[in-house]
């Protein structure tokens, strides 16, 4: 189960929903790690948390499906030790080398020596910065939940550009997109109502036909 905050911007909502769905498919429990060399030169081998969308989560890294913005995601080659020509590191190609973090995005890991969690985070600075999140103190949270709680406020700023980027990537205007989305929503509403009506009629009919008259005692002439 994933919880996604509602937003009136359908492209921001679709960007976030697709982000969470991809990560749930890759790691349903939010607890998978993969070892590799730390981006911090003061650390050695660390355990990277498998979050397939976080290093390329910003809307300008995404792509559109039926004029809706969806999230880019990295491939298994993202954790390769060295860059190899011709290798695809994310679906859209926005990431072009292993363990790269794009603007508005982040990469998380745990240092096995100190048990602290760290992030390479790129926000308003000229380059990604490393942030010490400390050890995970709440044992009821999965590693992904712990990381998300520390990063949600920063992430939304870059998610919220989804509508503008989606419209730039398509030839449709904002007004036309709104009209199309409303029409699609109304069609789905009518479809669901019709199915519910048929289901109720079917159940009512089954109830009626399931009532049998009480058998009468045999009569003698």
Main β-sheet, spatial strand arrangement: 1-2-5-6-7
Proportion in β-strands: 15-25%
Number of strands: 7
This entry's quaternary arrangement is single chain
Discrete helix count: 4
How many angstroms does the end-to-end distance come to? 70 Å
Shape: extended
Largest sheet: 5 strands, antiparallel
Any low-confidence stretches, pLDDT <50, length ≥5? Answer: none
Order of helices and strands: HEEEEEEEHHH
Structural class: alpha+beta
Fraction of residues in helices? 25-40%
C-alpha-based Rg, rounded: 25 Å
What's the overall average pLDDT, rounded?
A: 83
Q: What are the SSEs and their pairings?
A:
Layout: H1 10-26, E1 33-37, E2 45-49, E3 63-65, E4 68-70, E5 106-110, E6 116-121, E7 129-135, H2 143-159, H3 162-169, H4 174-210
Antiparallel strand pairs: 1-2, 2-5, 3-4, 5-6, 6-7
Outline the structure in words:
- The protein is of the alpha+beta class and 221 residues long.
- 36% of the residues lie in helices and 15% in strands.
- It is built from four helices and seven strands, in the order αβββββββααα.
- It has helices at residues 10-26, 143-159, 162-169, 174-210, and strands at 33-37, 45-49, 63-65, 68-70, 106-110, 116-121, 129-135.
- The strands form two sheets. A five-stranded antiparallel sheet has the order 1-2-5-6-7, with helices on one face.
- The longest helix has 37 residues, at 174-210.
- The protein starts with 9 loop residues before the first helix and ends in an 11-residue tail after the last helix.
